[in-house]
Amino acid sequence: MKKQPKYWDNAATTPVDQRVLYAMLPYFSEFFWNASSNHIYGKKAKTAIEQARNSVADLINSDAKEVFFTSGATESINWAIKGFVEANSEKGNHIITVKTEHKAVLNTCEYLETKGFDVTYLNVDKNGLIDLDDLKNSIRKNTCLVCIMYVNNEIGVIQEIEQIGNICRKANIIFFCDATQAAGKVPIDVQSDNIDMLCISGHKFNGPKGIGVLYIRKGLNLAPLIHGGGQERSLRGGTYNTPLIVGIGEAARIAKTDFSLIRESILKKRQEVVFFLLNNKIATINFENQNTAPHIISATLINKDAEDFILENINEFVISTGSACTSSLIQKSHVIENVFPERKNNIIRISF
């Protein structure tokens, strides 16, 4: 049998943990009931959903009633931004975000600009970080929302989330954080970080695809993005996808209970690959001396084009040059353009 290349593109998607799969399977056939049905079987399915909600809440240190299930981080992002501005028009029409955010955030903000909203796109420095003074100076009387991601999905840098949350809280501005790449990899605490809304996606931390979460701080009003039945406290219509909800719940439970083991395993792999790249003078490691997520290595190839390098080694390992969401569009990464404009063709991403 032909040897399969190593899969080092886990920032794009991860395999479903066997424990997650086993937890989900009964809810496809044996426990197939509609969780909205008002009978004994429906209530059993609803109980499984609430258990999953509790597990997600434990992972991010929120109340279970603040956890809402969606189809994934992209829906959560759209709902957080559009739902907030629609329900809180009196708070202003100015949004602050960052040039290196995920396209789901940037495209949503660009859409809102066509509807009369004003958006400030903060620059990042050579370390991929925003200047906190730039954030403070960008705040206006009509600023209603700040959207800044926790871990950048392409380069792995961690923004100063706690300080950003404090700035927003003092200014009485809502802070939305895309934590899709943070879940299960770095500790998340929406309380201590003063995060008002936060999204995660199951398939980024060994859960299933097609399921995500939006955390909405208690007392915050959002307009529904999807209208329908009374599911998710009448804020998100649609029949409960019980198997996938159970799946993300189990993934969250594992991420919480096995956090140290998972981190140790990731760091070991990271160490081995970093040694390989440096020892063989293949690449230098970006952001080596700053706070980055353990599972993402951003590296600069030495005198080598990134796409050529990936093709040359396609039988040995699978890596990427950036986000899977943009690579399929055959366009250069907006993140790399903003952080490494002078060596944009030499950057690779390895993720565990």
Describe this structure in words.
The structure is a single chain. This protein is of the alpha/beta class and 352 residues long. Helices cover 37% and strands 15% of the residues. The chain has helices spanning 18-24, 40-60, 73-87, 103-113, 132-138, 161-170, 231-234, 242-257, 259-279, 306-312, 324-327, 334-339, and strands at 6-7, 67-70, 94-98, 118-122, 143-147, 174-178, 197-201, 212-216, 283-285, 296-301, 317-318, 347-351. A seven-stranded mixed sheet has the order 2-8-7-6-5-3-4, sandwiched between helices. A three-stranded antiparallel sheet has the order 9-10-12, covered by helices on one side. A two-stranded parallel sheet has the order 1-11. It is globular, with a radius of gyration of 21 Å. The mean pLDDT is 95.
> The biggest beta sheet, please?
7 strands, mixed
Structural class from helices and strands? alpha/beta
Compute the CA-based radius of gyration.
Answer: 21 Å
Low-confidence stretches: none
CATH topology of the largest domain: Aspartate Aminotransferase, domain 2
How far apart the termini lie comes to 25 Å
User: Helix and strand string, N-terminal first?
Assistant: EHHEHEHEHEHEEEHHHEEHEHHE
Overall tally of domains: 2
Total helical elements: 12
Shape summary: globular
